[in-house]
Amino acid sequence: MTRDEILAVLLRWNLWGNARKTKIVSRECIQKVRSFKDYHGVIVIKGPRRAGKSTNM
Q: 32 in a domain, yes or no?
């Protein structure tokens, strides 16, 4: 691949440089997290990378 071909591929996959609109999927776990909004302790949300953990916050 040439340098220009590589850059073209990278630009397509660059989520920070492209303003792609993503569909937010409603999940059951969001309601569970919201039920803890007045809780003053530590809440741990764990899961795979890029699964929307920060989006829910």
A: yes
